[in-house]
Amino acid sequence: MSKATDRPNLLYIHSDQHCPFVTGCYGDPLVRTPNLDRLAASGAVMDAAYCPSPICVPSRMSMLTGRHPFQNRAWTNRHMLDSSIPTLAHALGAAGYRPRLVGRMHSIGPDQLHGYAERYVGDHSPNFVGGHPAVDRGSLNGTAGPQHVSLERSGAGQSGYEVHDEEVTEVTVDLLDRIGAERRRSGAGGGKAPEPFCLTAGFMLPHPPYVARKDDFALYEGRVTPPGKPELAAGAAPEYLEWWREDRGLMQAAAGESLRARAAYWGLVTSLDRMIGRILRALEENGLEENTLVVYTSDHGDMLGEHGLWWKHTFYEESARVPLILSWKDRISAGARCTRVVSALDGTATILDALGAPALPGAAGRSLLPLLEGDGEGGAAGSGATGGSSGGPVEWTDEAFSEYCSDEEWSPAGGCYQRMIRRDQWKLCYYHGDRMQLFDLKEDPQELVNRAEDPACRGILSDLRARLLEEWDPEQVTRTMRAKREEQELLTAWAENTAPSEGFRWDMRPEMFHLDEPA
Q1: What residues contact 516, with CB distance under 8 A and at least 6 apart?
Q2: pTM for the full predicted model
Q3: Are 57 and 74 contacting, i.e. CB atoms less than 8 angstroms apart?
Q4: Residue 155, exposed/middle/buried by CB under 10 A (0-12, 13-18, 19+)?
Q5: Is 320 exposed, middle or buried (CB count within 10 Å of its CB: 0-12, 13-18, 19+)?
């Protein structure tokens, strides 16, 4: 084995609900994200990365295991990940690293580590289904979920999630400072080479409430543009999406609410970027950037009013696409952009490949390094990023999946069982028992024309549908989720009555949430 100092470090930064299109390096001319833009300039930007699920827990658990939600049997925010399934952290530990997590993971159940050797700060929500005290956001109760009140009560103020992330930032910077000091001591004394570090920082922002500190909100108030994509045309979309808009109160959303919530979201992204900047500066000031793979991504995006929709829960690009930025000095070409279709699961496989860790059994992800390390035709510096380390072309299937299956309180009667496939320029959205959506993203990047009933597209629709259903059976998913509901009822009652100890619960308080009084 090589010396410890030759092995790369990992800094994995993971946010919550960050739509990639609200980032400077992804083309937003208004938002201020200088630190993410600088990270992108030092490495590679994946322009077509998709989340495993457009909702928190299933997406995060899939990114941990490298498996699709149906393989994890975790589809909703109440589903536990089986602790016997190996994770990214387990594989890194097996490779000799000591993985540490600061902040957000959003794991449900008694296993709040899932392979991490150390964890700091923790989540704001109960560790158990039915755990208490329940989340209390004070005057902003209801604004974090898919309810119209999150648009009504938006604007300048403070979200407890931002307070949480400030502590995540402080602890992460402190850890990097301590690592840097240890290395300086080791270098001065000529002792044993320090072990490489393996650090994950999990943020809540820019997850709603759509409430930003007044200075950040002021940057965008009156400047942010209204949504640019028209609302769903009645009768032209799946019944589910029409039901969703009606049930969630979006039909009554006013233009002023939309602009105010968007300005706050842009402000939250800027706040997140500022905190990430502090972490990146600590990395550099401690001389740790030389052999560190830095990865930034998010669990899913946010519709932000496009197509008349908000929050996540859909397969439109704003919801299902995620930012994915990878920087590794002298290994990934600076300023690279990759337009190949990839999954967030590929990001997991890439981290393991880069750090020499064993691949996760049963994982669906593929390492991106062959795409990013080369300089061949359309290579890492080119728009296609198809070169390999030898300069030749890399075989890559432009394909990614996402799934959304829910039987929670914001689901229609009987639940919803949905899956998406993006392959090449096409995206098929399958709604079990409902009409499908088929988009040609090359000709129709705004997803305005549903080609599912176009006779000219029968062949591509048939092929994509067959591939989408090849491993995923909606009837089996329905049966499994029904059984899990019965299990959860018992587990919820147990937690409510026994109040199990929560070892990784951040102390979020109602007074951390407020809207500023109008001037």
Answers
A1: 155, 156, 157, 214
A2: 0.95
A3: yes
A4: buried
A5: buried
The tokens for 209 are 């409430």
Cα angle, residue 311 at apex, residues 310 and 314 outer, rounded to 5°: 90
Q: Where in the chain are the domains? A: 8-515
Chain centroid to CA 432: how far? 25
Q: Where are the beta strands (DSSP E) in 17-122?
A: 44-46, 49-50, 100-103, 118-120
- Contact yes or no for 81/65 (Cβ under 8 A): yes
Phi-psi region of 91 (alpha: psi -120 to 50; beta: other; left: phi over 0): alpha
C-alpha–C-alpha distance, residues 183 and 358, integer Å: 27
379-389 pLDDT tens trace: 343 445 444 43
Range 8-515 classified under CATH 3.40.720.10: yes
Asked whether 351 and 11 are in contact (CB, 8 A), the reply is: no
* Tokens coding 232: 């769903």
Other beta carbons within 10 angstroms of residue 506's beta carbon come to: 19
Residues whose CB falls within 8 Å of the CB of residue 403, separated by 6 or more in sequence, listed in order: 52, 53, 58, 68, 69, 70, 75, 418, 419, 420, 472
Q: 292-298 and 118-120: which strand pairing?
A: unpaired
Q: For residue 241, how many C-alpha atoms fall within 13 Å in the half-sphere facing its CB? A: 27
In the chain, the amino acid numbered 409 is: E
* Residue 190 confidence (pLDDT): 60
Tens of pLDDT, residue by residue over 288-329, are 999 999 999 999 999 999 999 999 999 999 999 999 999 999
Instruction: Lowest mean pLDDT of 40-54, 247-261, 454-468, name the range.
Output: 247-261
Q: Check: CB of residue 299 under 8 Å from CB of residue 63.
A: yes
Which residue do the tokens 């008349």 mark?
Answer: 308
DSSP, collapsed to helix, strand or coil, labels residue 343 as strand
Q: Which amino acid is at 303?
A: M
Is pLDDT at 22 greater than 60 in this prediction?
yes
For the chain, the first-to-last Cα distance in angstroms comes to: 63
Q: Sign of the C-alpha dihedral, residues 68, 70, 74, 76?
A: positive
The helices-and-strands tally (H runs, E runs) of the chain is 14, 17
Residue 462 has a CB neighbour count (10 Å cut-off) of 10
- From CA 197, how far away is CA 120, in angstroms rounded? 15
Contact 283, 11 (CB under 8 A): yes
Q: What is the mean pLDDT of residues 190-201?
A: 85
Nearest alpha carbon to residue 149 among 213, 211, 206, 106: 211
Contacts of 238 (CB under 8 A, 6+ apart): 429, 431, 434, 435, 436, 437
Query: In this structure, what token pair is assigned to residue 496?
Result: 């409510």
**Beta bridge partner(s), residue 14:** 202, 297
Measured distance CA(161)–CA(508) in Å, rounded: 8
Alpha-carbon distances of 396 from 109, 388, 423, rounded to whole Å = 37, 11, 11
Fill in the amino acid letter for 105.
M
Residue 235 CB coordination number (10 Å): 8
